[in-house]
Every structure is written in C-alpha cells, then in structure tokens.
Amino acid sequence: MFKSEFLNKTVKYLEMKVLPKPFELPNSFSLPQEFWNRVISMYRFTDKDDMERACSLFYVDKDFVFSPITTGNREEVTLNNPINVSYEPLSTYHYEKRVTINNTIVDKRRIYKTELPKSIMIYSALSLHTHPYSSITRSEKHYETYSITDLNSLKNGAEIGAILVTNIVGVIFKTRSGFTYYKANFNKPFQIDREKKF
Hints:
Blueprint: H1 5-16, E1 28-30, H2 33-49, E2 53-60, E3 63-66, E4 70-71, E5 83-89, E6 94-101, E7 104-112, E8 122-130, E9 135-137, E10 140-142, H3 148-156, E11 161-165, E12 169-175, E13 178-185, E14 191-195
Parallel strand pairs: 8-11
Antiparallel strand pairs: 1-14, 2-3, 2-4, 2-8, 5-6, 6-7, 9-10, 11-12, 12-13, 13-14
C-alpha cells in the first residue's frame, strides 16, 4: 500500500470517465520507493527464468495496492484480478480495512471509524508487465518494446496507463489523441520523463 500525488491526479480522470489531453500530463513525475520495489522484483524474476510477469495497480479508497504477480510464459501473460474490499468493525471506534485480490490479502490495516468511506471506490489504475529478452548479441541482451497486443490491451482496458519493465522502464498513458510516452530516468532516482516515443 502506498500513496502518490501524481497517480491521484490520474485517478481523477478515471472517476470522471474521460481521458486526459496530452498537455494535461506533466513532462516528468516521480513514484515512491514501494513502486520501484515491485518493478525491480518483477524484472529480476523475468531475467532469471525468461517468463513474462504482470500485475495491476489498483486505487482503493485513497490508497494504491498491487495485485499479486502473475507468471505467464515467454510470449504472453494474462491478468485476471478479482478484487474485494471490506471494512470489519473491531471496536466502537476502529475498523479493519481489508483488500483481497486473487484470494490473497494485499492490504490489511486498522482505521478509525471516521475514516470509513461513504462508498467504496475501486479503479484499476495501471498495468505492469515484463518482457524477457528477445535476442543476445555479444552477451548483450536486447528487448522488444510494446507490442501491438500490449497497445490494444491498454486501449481497450480499464487502466489509464501501462508500464513495461525490461532493461528500461517505459510508461504509456492513454490520452484523448492517442498515447503519451515516458521512460524512467535512472540518473534521477524515482523520476520518469516524457519521451517522443521508444
């Protein structure tokens, strides 16, 4: 579970059921350490066994939570993330917020009764997936970028953006006029910068 000012802004578009205009997205943004821990973990798994990995990032009542990592094969990975959110009373003043995805509890914590939402809000904000290397030249691994299938999945899916994890971290957001591309800037920790394309 983590919070992100930038991702909160993108969720507003999901709430309004509209896509942003390209100029409404920033030239760069940052994401917290918890996000990068998941990215690194997925990359290491795929680098070790050459299997695609994927997960979803959900917005659940002011917090962001990851689904468990799904393992596919060398060519594809399919996500199916049933999600359930419940608030169980613990005492007169406290409740337990519990988020379950794929029958796995991904977030469980104690909250005050005053923090109970009037209605539960759940949005699938981003999808993340890895690609194994496609070829090796002189012991250097080469990777494919987004495939047509990846782009169509994003275009037709509920998420506002998708993240591809290879030897680079590429980010695409849907906009009213197509896609806006970003790439992680490893010279500036946790920062992601806009790109023309990659």
